[in-house]
Design goal:
Elements: E1 6-12, H1 13-40, H2 55-87, H3 94-114, H4 130-152, H5 161-180, E2 183-187, E3 190-193, H6 197-215, H7 218-232, H8 239-253, H9 268-280, H10 282-294, H11 300-303, H12 307-329, H13 332-338, H14 342-371, H15 379-411, H16 425-430, H17 433-463, E4 469-475, H18 488-493, H19 496-520, H20 536-547, H21 562-568, H22 603-611, H23 613-616, H24 638-647, H25 656-677, H26 687-697
């Protein structure tokens, strides 16, 4: 091939640099918020008495910052670096690249503003309100269009394995985000989910589990398949194993969401499907891990000295650990122990800190010097970062496993009289305080390592000279290439649109089979005649509960175990949640379950508990909410809320939007009277009154009360 047949072009490194810098900056912010949140779990006063920095409000800020800001920007940096080089062409549209960058940063900024203000849907990893959801969809489609356009104008005939994962990630995240975010707006800052109760739970965890799968896993597998062989200077171990890994992973993953809802009010058949396919996930997941680690054959001597490879080896190992632990947690016997405890927190962070964090660090340490045409400023600092980060993961995860087992064993223990040995949930929480301290220390170590990386990256950039446009050349793609006897998958790789359609079909099957019957077949959610819609005051109290992120610590789902029904009351039924938009079953209990709390305590107990939890529950780790007794509720949107819920099928009487305010005031006056009888003076339109109304409603629709 002589030079006359080659076409010259360049790669845009500037967009990669910007996404890389955003990864580093947002990573520090997200990790810092995480350390603050972890500190509040043993020292509630760390919120500084501020309603906007309580654990319930900054916890979703932390998860969104690390998932979508830190990990998201890392994905985009890696894709914009690797994809043009794999396809021997610049990205299709430079304008779309920059629209993607600035659009994504504005979305993150909007999340950072709205979540502490309490503007949230409360759905795990999907807390952002509807205008931001629409912006996410637009920016994501721009990213996908840019990828597919680049594929169509490529100079490389076949798509390398990394690109398979990029494509599947784009398609699946788009489908998940759109369907889970369907909601009916009340106004610009408030909406109600299109789904209710059990159906909302299934759709949310179909999204939640697969957001982990197709945002935190599959794009990172694509990055692994590109950057690990580059760093090791070795080819991928097995092309055929890559094929099995890819297709089996994207097909099976979409069935596994219900394993987050075992022993809940979800139909049993959906729980079984989730468990079966979750266990099956071990095979493709470990196939990917093996393919990654065996790529290092003949290069293990480099791991001793190369911090990039150290990070990547631990990342792939953490991926293997998480993808073994996940299916194990999907077994009902193990799930009974782990769910609602800190085991889930440990599991998530082995994946987040080990797999996503360390692979991102390894990728940045490899890519940054090449962008600036130099070498890393300090290998010693990079190695220091590795060891501090590794210690951080250990100090984070191990105490959480100990905390989980400690709490579970205490919660399920009965004394010789057949009563709960630890009848007060708080008794189990107090025992975990040392573990929470160690967890925060581990997070601080991990953050310290990231700060070291920031300095190292800055000095590397200062030492080098940034190459905005990197020249390359390659022959044009041959037309009408269709060789006889070509391996079937190689033929698919020449057809990016066809390949994308096949991937879409593969991911759509599992979700459709689980979700469509749950929504359309009424027997999956049997109704209960005594369950009525929330009163206007209860509805406003519920929205306040959601705004303050109370679901981050309190579940509303009593599972059918003796140690739970003895503690909380009758187990939860599917029909009790038909008017819950969104569902609030929770995923972690730092406080007790609240599904049967209605009527358990007088109104005054809730008042004093919110004013200062330790007056009612000595040793409580819950922060006080004294501002609730003074903050005035804004009920101006109540009629619009009633009309919106009516459109969603909630059976409020016709014209009730005009009557709702009178009913609200009547119920508020009754609560104020009850409080006055207990010696408490409070205005009827304060936040505390609305919250008490909601809490006193919980679990009272059926005749079931707790035994203690």
């Amino acid at each position: 091939m002589n030079d006359a047949t080659l076409e010259r072009f360049h790669y845009d490194n500037k967009i990669v640099k910007y996404f890389g810098a955003a990864t580093i900056i947002w990573g520090i912010v997200g990790m810092l918020v995480g350390v603050i949140a972890a500190t509040q779990l043993f020292w509630p006063e760390a919120n500084l008495g501020n309603p906007y920095t309580t654990f319930g409000r900054i916890r979703p800020l932390h998860t969104n910052a690390v998932i979508f800001a830190f990990v998201g920007n890392a994905i985009f940096a890696g894709v914009y670096y690797s994809m043009p080089r794999l396809l021997k062409t610049p990205m299709w549209n430079k304008g779309l690249s920059w629209f993607h960058f600035w659009g994504w940063q504005l979305i993150i900024l909007a999340a950072a503003i709205t979540l502490p203000l309490g503007l949230t849907t409360s759905k795990e990893y999907a807390e952002l309100e509807w205008p931001i959801d629409i912006a996410i969809a637009l920016v994501w489609v721009a990213f996908g269009a840019n990828m597919i356009g680049t594929l169509i104008k490529r100079r490389e005939r076949h798509m390398y394995v990394a690109i398979w994962f990029y494509l599947a990630s784009f398609v699946t995240v788009a489908v998940l985000h759109i369907f889970n975010s369907l909601a009916l707006p009340v106004n610009f800052l408030k909406s109600y989910s299109a789904y209710a109760g059990v159906q909302d739970a299934l759709v949310q965890w179909w999204y939640g589990h697969n957001a982990v799968a197709f945002f935190l896993t599959t794009p990172f597998l694509g990055l692994m398949y590109y950057f690990l062989p580059k760093a090791a200077n070795r080819p991928v171990y097995s092309y055929k194993l890559s094929i099995i890994h890819f297709w089996s992973l994207i097909f099976i993953y979409m069935w596994a969401g219900p394993h987050h809802l075992l022993y809940t009010a979800l139909p049993e058949w959906a729980q079984v499907l989730g468990t079966v396919f979750s266990v099956m996930l071990i095979a493709p997941s470990w196939g990917g891990m093996v393919n990654g680690l065996l790529t290092l054959r003949g290069a293990w001597d480099k791991v001793r000295n190369e911090p990039v490879l150290k990070f990547m080896v631990v990342a792939v190992t953490a991926y293997g650990m998480s993808t073994f632990e996940g299916p194990m947690l999907s077994l009902k016997s193990v799930n009974a122990i782990a769910h609602y405890t800190d085991w889930i927190v440990a599991h998530v962070h082995i994946g987040g800190l080990g797999w996503n964090g360390f692979l991102t660090f390894g990728m940045l340490y490899w890519m940054w010097p090449r962008l600036f045409k130099t070498t890393i400023y300090s290998q010693k600092l990079a190695n220091t970062h590795f060891w501090i980060g590794t210690l951080g993961i250990i100090f984070y995860a191990l105490p959480m496993y100990v905390a989980a087992l400690t709490q579970f064993l205490m919660l399920r223990e009965f004394n010789e009289m057949g009563r709960l040995a630890y009848g007060n949930f708080l008794q189990t929480v107090v025992e975990l305080v040392p573990m929470y301290m160690l967890r925060a220390f581990g997070g601080l170590l991990y953050l310290t390592g990231a700060i070291i990386m920031v300095y190292n990256m800055f000095m590397t950039a200062k030492k080098g000279s940034f190459q905005a446009y990197e020249e390359d050349q390659a022959p044009a793609l041959a037309k009408n290439y269709n060789p006889a006897g070509e391996f079937w998958h190689r033929a698919w790789e020449r057809k990016p649109v066809f390949f994308t359609v096949l991937a879409t079909i593969a991911i759509a099957i599992g979700g459709a089979i689980e979700i469509i019957p749950t929504i359309l077949v009424k027997s999956n959610v049997p109704t209960i005649a005594s369950v009525k819609p929330y009163t206007p005051l209860e509805l406003e109290g519920r929205d306040l509960y959601i705004a303050n992120g109370c679901v981050g610590c309190h579940s509303q789902m009593i599972r059918p175990f003796r140690f739970e029904t003895e503690r909380y009351g009758e187990y939860s039924k599917a029909g009790e949640f038909v008017y819950d938009r969104p569902f609030l079953w929770g995923s972690k209990r730092t406080g007790p379950d609240l599904h049967r709390v209605g009527g358990k305590y007088p109104d005054s107990w809730h008042y004093f508990h919110m004013e200062d939890p330790r007056t009612m529950s000595p040793g409580s780790l819950m922060p006080p909410y004294p501002w609730m007794k003074e903050n005035i509720m804004d009920y101006s949107e109540l009629p619009a809320k009633i009309r919106t819920l009516q459109k969603l099928g909630v059976p409020y009487p016709e014209g009730y939007d005009q009557q709702a305010m009178a009913d609200l005031e009547s119920q508020a006056d009754q609560i104020v009277t009850n409080l006055k009888d207990a010696g408490v003076e409070v205005l009827p339109n304060t936040e505390i009154v609305a919250l008490i109304a909601y809490l006193q409603r919980l679990g009272t629709d059926i005749n079931a009360t707790a035994s203690n």
